[in-house]
Amino acid sequence: MKKLINKPEDVVKESLAGVAAAHGDLVKVHYDPDYIVRADGPVQGKVGVISGGGSGHEPMHGGFVGMGMLDAACPGDVFTSPTPDQMEAATKAVDGGAGVLHIVKNYTGDVMNFEMAAEIAQVGGIEVEAVVTNDDVAVQDSLYTAGRRGVGITVLAEKISGAAAERGDNLKAVADMCRKVNANGRSMGMALTSCTVPAAGKPTFEIGDDEMEIGIGIHGEPGRERMSLKSAREVVDMMAEAIISDLPYKSGDQVIAMVNGMGGTPLIELYLVYNELNRVCSGKGITIARRLVGNLITSLDMAGCSITLLKADAELLQLWDAPVHTPALRWGV
Amino acid sequence: MKKLINKPEDVVKESLAGVAAAHGDLVKVHYDPDYIVRADGPVQGKVGVISGGGSGHEPMHGGFVGMGMLDAACPGDVFTSPTPDQMEAATKAVDGGAGVLHIVKNYTGDVMNFEMAAEIAQVGGIEVEAVVTNDDVAVQDSLYTAGRRGVGITVLAEKISGAAAERGDNLKAVADMCRKVNANGRSMGMALTSCTVPAAGKPTFEIGDDEMEIGIGIHGEPGRERMSLKSAREVVDMMAEAIISDLPYKSGDQVIAMVNGMGGTPLIELYLVYNELNRVCSGKGITIARRLVGNLITSLDMAGCSITLLKADAELLQLWDAPVHTPALRWGV
Questions:
Q1: Residue A75, SS3 per DSSP
Q2: Is the torsion defined by CA of B172, B174, B180, B183 positive or negative?
Q3: For B78-123, how does the pLDDT look when each residue is reduced to its tens digit (9 = 90+)?
């Protein structure tokens, strides 16, 4: 295993310490239970927006904590759901009296633990709503998930819900906005290589030098199909077709697009993928109005990419454009 | 070779097309000769700042074109110097009447070609100054370089020189500021794996499963020492010591620090590396006043990292903090 780490069991805590040291102006890291919280929070009168999940997907979620996006993020161990006490503590920490939205990727452990945390927080007098994202069109059920997995749309949902909270929307409105993003978003991923979980010390799955996997999950869960290596053009054609036909996205639609790297794929390739995605969308009369190209929701050191599309009306675009100031995303400030 | 590409010979052009499609509000891509230029340029009366070099180091340099940083970037083929006609055309394209600064990483081909371009541009009536960066403390001479290689400081030099040009400094002042950054900056890199050049189709060098290379160049050129895998703590101790003792950086110094990923190393590891760097600097009384953590100057899909320190006075920090709006770096706007 080739990683820039010390002991495998210390990876998450030491990486969090790096985030705290680098971004102390934006976020604070609380340990035991672990969560990352806005340095200037809780914001009184504002709906709190939190998320969380296993570590290994950085910058998601901790890199998205800050003005205009998340109020807190709960990092679990690598590819392991955070515990209810983390989520409960984060919920309390961000509560500014207007309630708290939990944005939960659809993985069975995350959903169960966020539900428990919500119940405890509600008993404590904090109003909580939860939205479960499930945008991955690749497979219906998966290794850790009943139903569709929650993947790339979570990044866009955190940005847009955070902007809605920032402008003063109430809890129901922020939650409804998050549901709207999830309902209008679809994603699919692929892998050229496996990732390696530090504690395991060896690749999560075996894959041949001439093979790739289409529809992979962000933990290396099996996808739709193992196949021989294809060109970027063919890869994007397959993924974009699966995404576009699912909602479906139609000629005349405006979308926010994300081309996401899985952690081990360099930017030169991601822009090449974006070029292919732009070709496919243009050919179908779909306009990419905004986009992110980079490593946003990763799978440790996996080589590969995912594509996310979000059908966006004027209000979604306005919330997208609203200022954001987090370690990983920043504009307008 | 596992890459998200079509034909190896089309990688650079197709990736540039992706940049153009994604960031048309910020940059335009000119083909034959290839260069990326500010969409709102040339800015009349402002010193133009350009850079360039082989592709495969994205986001450098094209991702740094925009307000407050570069006016243009010239991408060569992968790991291949751009040609003088690219640099000459870019120089002409950005000239707003106040002259043009060439920021050149110290690689023999880049230096020679930028010199030729400068001569031609000067014959054409454009005042040109050139600053060659040479911040890599790892080795004195290298595979493609006489003297020290120019690496990570180039990113910081482009930001700070761009800010100096933006506030209206004249050509000599912008060039002097760039020289000051280079003189006060030092870097060192390391690799866990090789990169693979698309046209070659196989790893640039062989490295064992239990080996790493300290002091590697950004094209996989040999470094200081091939050694057995070490912990992140030991790796950072070695690199930071080499950097700090070289200038030297002293107790009481303020620095801008960059922890840079080589392209295949995920953010969870880079923040862990930053945590170690922060420990070393704190222990020596060196304050990290600003920092970048991420993939800024990469080596295709190489796993590894580099560290750059820049001793910074109040003016450098002010120029660092000035607004910047490029595809890869954005703040204050």
A1: strand
A2: negative
A3: 999 999 999 999 999 999 999 999 999 999 999 999 999 999 999 9
Which residues on chain B are in Cβ contact (under 8 Å) with A4? 192, 232, 235, 265, 269-270, 272-273, 304-305
The helix (H) or strand (E) run that includes residue B288 is strand B287-294
Assessment of whether the complete model's pTM goes beyond 0.95? yes
What's the Cα-to-Cα distance from A19 to each of A37, B46, B275, B309, rounded to whole Å?
Answer: 11, 37, 8, 18
Domains recognised in chain A with CATH numbers: 11-184 (3.40.50.10440), 185-311 (3.30.1180.20)
Contact A316, A181 (CB under 8 A): yes
Interface residue B6 vs chain A (CB under 8 A): yes
Helices A171-183 + A153-166 axis angle, to 10: 150
Largest CA distance in chain A: 56
> Are the beta carbons of B16 and B29 closer than 8 angstroms?
yes
Q: Are B155 and B183 in contact (CB under 8 A)?
A: no
- pLDDT beyond 90 at B310: yes
Contacts of A38 (CB under 8 A, 6+ apart): A26, A27, A28, A65, A66, A67, A70, A71, A72, A94
- Using a CB-CB cut-off of 8 Å, the residues of chain A touching B232 are 4-6, 14
- With contact defined as beta carbons under 8 Å apart, do A43 and A67 qualify? no
What residues contact residue B183 under an 8 Å CB cut-off, 6+ apart? none
DSSP calls for B148-161:
SPP-THHHHHHHHH
Q: How far apart are CA B189 and CA B6, in angstroms?
A: 30
- At position B177, the amino acid (one-letter code) is M
A5-62 pLDDT, tens digit each: 999 999 999 999 999 999 999 999 999 999 999 999 999 999 999 999 999 999 999 9
Q: Which two tokens stand for residue B325?
A: 């709006």
Report which of B142, B229, B228, B144 is spatially closest to residue B188, judged by C-alpha positions: B142
Q: What is the DSSP letter of B212?
A: E
Per-residue pLDDT at A143: 85
- Strand (E) or helix (H) holding A279: helix A267-283
Give CA–CA dist A113/A116, Å, rounded. Answer: 5
275-304 in chain A: CB under 8 A from chain B: 275, 278, 288, 291, 293, 295, 298, 300-301, 303-304
A and B: number of Cβ contacts within 8 A: 173
pLDDT band (50, 70, 90) for residue B66: very high
Interface ipTM > 0.90: yes
- Answer yes or no: do A264 and B298 touch at CB < 8 A: no
- Tokens read off for B13: 């052009």
Long-range pairs, B199-206, Cβ under 8 A, ≥24: B199/B8, B199/B9, B199/B77, B199/B78, B201/B1, B201/B8, B202/B1
Q: How confident is the prediction for chain A on average, in pLDDT?
A: 98
- Entry field: residues in chain B: 333
- Give the separation between CA A273 and CA B89, rounded to whole angstroms: 28
